[in-house]
Amino acid sequence: MEKPQRSPATPPGTEPTTEPRHRSRLPRRVLLALAVGAAVLGVVWLVLPAQREAAAPDASAPGARALTAVTAGAPAALPDLAALIGDQERRLRAHPKDARAWAVLGAAYVEQGRRTADAADYPKADRALRTSLRLRPEANPEALEGLAALAVRRRDFRGARSYAEAALKLDAKRWTTYPLLIDACDGLGDYKAAQATLDRLLKLHQGPAVKARAAAAYWDRGWREDAAAQLSDAAAAATAPVEQAAYLEQAGRIAFERGDLEDALRHFEAALRLEPDQRTALVGQGRTLAALGRTDEALKAYHRALDERPSPEGALELGELYQSLGMGQEARAQYDLLRTRARQDAAAGVDDDLVLGRFEADHADARSAVRRLRAEWQRQPGTAVADALGWALHRAGQDKEALRFATAATDETKGGGVRNALYMYHRGIIERDLDQPGAARRHLERSLRTNPFFSPLWAPRARSALEALGEPPVDEAPAGVRFPEGSGARR
Known about the structure:
Serine Threonine Protein Phosphatase 5, Tetratricopeptide repeat, 491 residues, globular, 24 helices, mainly alpha
C-alpha cells in the first residue's frame, strides 16, 4: 500500500492574516526556535529527494518485473515470481491487513502454479485471495480477478465466469479480466458470449497479451491466418523475453496443429532460447521432433519438460509416444504417473476429469470414462469435453449417441469450428462403425489434411482406416451433385 503523500496545502495556523501585526507578535524564544527549525527543514528538504529516489522500488528488480507482468495479464519469469512472492510475504508480515498485497500474492501463486504445473500453489493462492476479499469485501476487483484466474487453472469454468463478471461489474474497463471471462465462456460452451467478450476486449486494449488471446480465439473458430498474424504481432510487440517466449510457443503449437513441422520447431526453439525452462515449449519440441522421426531427441525433450513436474496431459502424450514405439512398460509408467498427478491435482482443487476420461477411454476402462465425462459435460459442456465424451461412448460400444457428441465437437454451428485433426479422426471412426463410409472417408481425409502428424499413435490408424475404406464408389456423390449423362453412375 502506498504511503499517503504530504499535502501541498499551507499548514493550518500559518494562513496570511490582515489583522494588525502586534496581535501576532511571538516571544523571541519561539521566533528563534522557528528559525532554527526552518533551517533544519531546509536541509532536510534538500536531502529528502535523494533519499526518496534511493528508496523508490527499482522497476528492473525481479519482484517489480513480476508485479508488472502479473498485474498486466502477461507471463512472468519463474525467478521473478519467486522474488515477488517473497516481497509480498515480507510486506504482509509487517502489514497483515493489506488487502492489495494479499491479492498480488494470490495472483503470483496462480501464475507460479501455471508455469510449473504444480497445483500445490493453488490452495495457497486461494487462501491469499480470499483473505484479500475478507479484508476488503467491497470494491476489490483485484481479488475477484485473481479468483477467476485460479478457477480457470482449476478448470472450474462456472466459478471463473462468476468471479470475472463480478470483477467487471466493479470495473468494466479492467481489460485483464476479459481474457479470463473468454476462457470461462469457452469452457462452458457459450461461444456467442465468448465472442462478444472478445469484441469488448479488443475495443478496450490492443497490447501483445490481447493479441495473443485473440489469436487463440481465432484458432478455435477456424481462422488460421488471422490467428497466425495476431501471434506474429504479439511476439514482435512483447518487451520482456518471457512474454515473447510465451507467444512464440503459442505460435509453435498453431504451426504444429496445421502440420507445418519445420515452422513449429523453429518457434519452439526460439522460445527456448529466450526461456530455457519453459515446459510447454519443451513438450512442443518433443512432439514435433517425434513427428519428424527424431525419436531420441524427442524423448529427451519430453523428459526435460516432465521429469520434475509432469502434467497429466504431458504424461498422456509421452505415454502414447512410447506406446507407438512398442515400449509398453515405459508407456505404462507414464500412465501410472498420470493417475498419481491427477490425484495430487484433485487434492489441490483441480478438475482433471477431461484428461482422465481421455486416458480411460483409450487405455483403461471405457465405461468409467463415459461416467466421468458425462458428469463433466453436465458441469461444463465445452468442445473438448464433447469430443472426449463422444469418443468414450464409441469405445464403450454406444456409437449412435457417440456421433451426436462427435458432431457437436466438429460442427461449426455448435462451436466446433476449431480445425482439430484428432476430433475429425474420432468422428470418422465413429461414422465408419455406423456404416457411413462416405462421411467416414470425408472426416478421415480432413483429419489427415489438417495435420497428418497429429498423434504418433492415432495418425497411423487414421491412414489405415482411410486406406481400408478405399476409393469412393462412383455413385457416392455429395448431395446436390449431378452426374453427366451417360456416365453410368446411379443417381
